[in-house]
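Run log, item B.
One chain of 134 residues. Sequence copied directly from the ordering sheet:
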Amino acid sequence: MVHKIVKASLGVLLVLTVGVAHGGEVRTIDPLRAFINNEYPLGDDYFIHGNADTYIFRCVLSKKTETVEGIALSEISIWGNHGGPWEVFRRSEKGDYIYVGTKGITDTSCLEWCRSKEYLASGQCTWQRGWPKQ
């Protein structure tokens, strides 16, 4: 019995450490999947759970407009008046992404959106520019 508990605990520990690199960095090749599936410690309270539909936001970041090159992701339910926190992933020199944290973005002209139900059904998003028409 104790052997099974230890074995199960080690399995849970392994699952929790997947994606964490040296120094506690969270690395991923797919920031959207990490965002949707809670594969890193979220900085804010997002509402992408089960098949409930919501809007996912994305901005592709460049050093021209932001301090990092990468991808920022968010979700509509926590946005007040068209400006919300973003989960920022910096593109590394290896081509993967490193989770930076919850940040603000100064220029949201990069805003794109898709419905979470599309991603949950297909594993992909058809990104549309601008603010969604509700």
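Observations after the first pass:
- Confidence is low (pLDDT under 50) at residues 2-22.
- DSSP finds three helices and seven strands in the chain.
Flagged for discussion on Thursday.
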